[in-house]
Amino acid sequence: MKSCAMPKVKDYAPPRTTDVNAWIEENLAEQEHRHAAIIAAMDALSSERDRWIAEFFERLGTTGYNVNGDQKRRVSADELPKKPARQHKVTY
Q: What are the boundaries of each domain within the chain?
């Protein structure tokens, strides 16, 4: 059986046309614009997010969470994570 003389895909990238490069640049600019809007929206929610986290930790300390059936476990304050010094990072 003869081996194929074609180059492997990982070793060969066909040249892009100017139309393709223009399309890539246009889509990249649109994605960066959308990403900036998402970051701004997430940053605007930071104080509200901090409140949500504080309320969640309060519920964990007072009512606890469901362990098994009707059993609940309360979480003490020293078991709760501390807020990091860095800005909260949201994954989206």
A: 18-79
